[in-house]
Amino acid sequence: MKITKIISHVLRYDMPEVLGYSQQYYDQRTAHLVEVQTDQGITGWGECFGPGNVAISNKSIVETVIQPIILGLDPVDRDVIWHKVYNLLRDHGQGGMPLQALSGVDIALWDIAGKLADLPLHKLLGGAHRTSVPCYGYGMMLRDEPVADLAARFEEEAARIKDIGFSATKMKTGFGPKSDVQLCEAVRRGVGDEYRFMVDANHAYTTSDAFYVGRALEELDAYWFEEPVAPEDLDGYAELRRGLTVNIVGGEAVFNRWNWRILLERRGLDIAQPEVCALGGISEYTRVLALCHAHFTPVVNHVWGSAIAVATNLHLLAAMPDLPGSLHPWEPMLEFDTTDNRFRDELLTAPLNIQLQVKNNAGRVSIPEGPGIGVEPDRDFINRFRIDA
Length: 389
Ligand code: CA
Prior knowledge:
Bound molecules: calcium ion
Order of helices and strands: EEEHHHHEHEHEHEHEHEHHHEHHEH
Structural class: alpha/beta
Number of strands: 11
Helix content: 40-55%
Radius of gyration: 20 Å
Strand content: 15-25%
Oligomer: single chain
CATH class of the largest domain: Alpha Beta
Number of helices: 15
């Protein structure tokens, strides 16, 4: 079998409302899907992390840099292809956009391998350790409004996410430590004393501010504190983890096995969040997962993007061994964005219906069973939202 063509589809629509996180507000939703075609009629689908103009730029890396390197190669040889591309791009970036671009291609190659073998991705990876996973719903995005108003909104939104049936929830912070603690208190009020909630700072704090917020999170019994400081600040992560009891988590902006090795060796994470659509695809994710488990660091995948990313992650979560293993083992969770995302809810010919599953199945989502990633994108839908045709 040979790779005959690689197409990037960048999709975009205007969001019904402006939302934000600690780094910026945004009013458009973007998705970057990668389609790998072969001479035997099997097509694979993947996805690259990266919104807005990053997606448009990554498209050119996929189509004009990576495609010429791998045209004519056997798509089943995904590890050979991964290293061929990585070694040639190493001098031009060992992380960031080249790795995001490679991730989408690699995921599509695994989709092809699964379709060729007529096996779902989790079977190719060694089988399912679980047939469903709990799903946490994140929301409580920032809005450009007074903190008191936002706190009232967060309290209500958190209660709503809990009522839908999600097994936990997650909020954003980003107005500075004192205001942010008020927002966290509002979310705790909204969900009550027993429910699990997490806090995502998107690396907005200095280490001392992160300690201030982290101590408040301990008082509020928050489950985790995500990206408290910049991903480059490995010492900051390690100091926070030693000094706080709340779980310190991160890793969505960490690329490839070598950077993950350094992060894990510094002992800065209680829970790791690898992003398969950014760190180098499924091939590299399996190596990063092994590294995390070798350091006895549990993993909850970072999930962002369209139904392709969600389905891919469901297989990865199924194929993740228990750490350390027990009668009632620690479970990973599926990350799910509760805000408007048509590229997740309407992209597939047979939708995943995550929200419905959560509602009807006590917060749990089942693992797709079709060959490869097990989903089929609707080409009419893609053509309606494509901005790069
Ligand atoms: Ca995050």
